[in-house]
Amino acid sequence: MDKILDIDNIDLKIISLLNEDAKTPYTEIAKKVFVSSGTVHVRMKKLEDMGIVKSATLNIDFSKLGYDISAFLGIYLEKSSLYDTVIERLKEIAEVVSAYYTTGNYSIFAKIICRDTNHLRLVLDKIQKVDGIDRTETLIVLEESINRPIQFFDKEK
Amino acid sequence: MDKILDIDNIDLKIISLLNEDAKTPYTEIAKKVFVSSGTVHVRMKKLEDMGIVKSATLNIDFSKLGYDISAFLGIYLEKSSLYDTVIERLKEIAEVVSAYYTTGNYSIFAKIICRDTNHLRLVLDKIQKVDGIDRTETLIVLEESINRPIQFFDKEK
DNA sequence: CAATTAAATTAGATTTAATCTAAATAGTGT
DNA sequence: ACACTATTTAGATTAAATCTAATTTAATTG
Q1: Are residues B21 and B70 in the same domain?
Q2: Can you give the residue range of the structural domain that contains A31?
Q3: Where would I find the HTH asnC-type domain in this sequence (chains A, B) (predicted)?
Q4: Straight-line distance from CA A41 to C1' D9, in Å?
């Protein structure tokens, strides 16, 4: 009775394999899943049409590109009703890569990526100047120990 | 004097374009960057060899796959020297998608993705039972308002 | 500053994959 | 069992990836 029922193990297997390497040819996926490559196409088209697979992106080592510091920000708003307008302001700041509405003390929980400590300071300044933001707490990332996709295994029938 | 100097604007442009859609054919990238597709190949090979481009992954809407709840966890350890061993335990828990060593009060900051509140409870239980973990704080994600790659523009020469 | 060498880029040929179509197969409900 | 629908498949066509050799560009040195 759930839209999830439109998705079977073949779909999940295809997603899992492509999620490890999105550039794997469909012909190769087809062999591993024991269907024809046409079926892989049809299934992927379905998954894209359903909005389950939204896009494919590169996994980039930003530190090697000179973006050496990332940080999580706990943002406190003056009034929680300001959430939407503050999010719009944050969208305009290129260094903000994600922002969430979460339970807990913070009004907004965000992540930013910066080149160095100086750049970080500039970005924090910019964020603290946004109207409606009261104050922020910064968790600077010193090490990324895990970063991987979910793995869903074959759920037995 | 920096490894970053091996990377020019052509590389950055290629990365930017492919980061929006990793499945864009190199021939199309080539046109937009005004080089031949062979050059795009060579550059991407270089970027992969340098470890800057690590892989390509799908951007999946997990909620549509039945994974409806994600949460950030602030984890307190009994002793901070236990970091490495606890990370190894967390790696064994499939629902843990990322974990960081950060400044601030938490010893480990992690993210998990679960199907529903019941599944979340199971996973939190499992995590709280890991040897060395003192207690955890949970920030449940109620809305993802921003989630995007960094955009680096052409840094003028 | 010309000549030599090295590096990067390119066009073109070949291999491989994506995509499309029509036929075959498997499911569904009556 | 029959008709209807949806899914899968093989095969053909189109398009892209990959490789190679040649050219162009840039860098280096006498």
Answers
A1: no
A2: 9-50
A3: 7-68
A4: 12
pLDDT grade, residue A155 (50/70/90)? very low
Helix (H, G, I), strand (E, B) or coil at B77: strand
- Our count of domains for chain A comes to 2
First to last CA, chain A: 16
For residues B94 and B131, state if they share a domain: yes
Residues A111, A97 contacting (CB under 8 angstroms): yes
- Identify the band that residue B5 occupies on the pLDDT scale cut at 50, 70 and 90: low
CATH assignment at residue A120 = 3.30.70.920
Considering only CB atoms, A143 lies closest to which of B4, B100, B139, namely B100
B103 with B80, same domain?
A: yes
A82 and A112 together in one domain: yes
Has residue B92 got a pLDDT over 90?
A: yes
Tokens of residue A151, six digits = 């793995």
List the structure tokens of A60.
């980039």
Fill in the DSSP letter of residue B56: E
Range list of H helices, A22-99: 26-33, 37-49, 83-91
Check CB contact under 8 Å for B101 and A22. no
Domain annotation covers residue A1: no
Q: Report how far residue A20's alpha carbon sits from residue B55's, in angstroms, rounded to the nearest whole number.
A: 8
Is the distance from CB of B75 to CB of B136 less than 8 angstroms?
yes
Say yes or no: Cβ of B8 under 7 A from any atom of strand D.
no
pTM for this entry:
0.86
Interchain contact, B102 vs A140, CB within 8 Å: yes
- Using CA atoms, how far residue A82 sits from A128, B28, B97, in Å, is 14, 42, 30
How far is the C-alpha of A67 from the C-alpha of A51, rounded, in Å?
Answer: 31
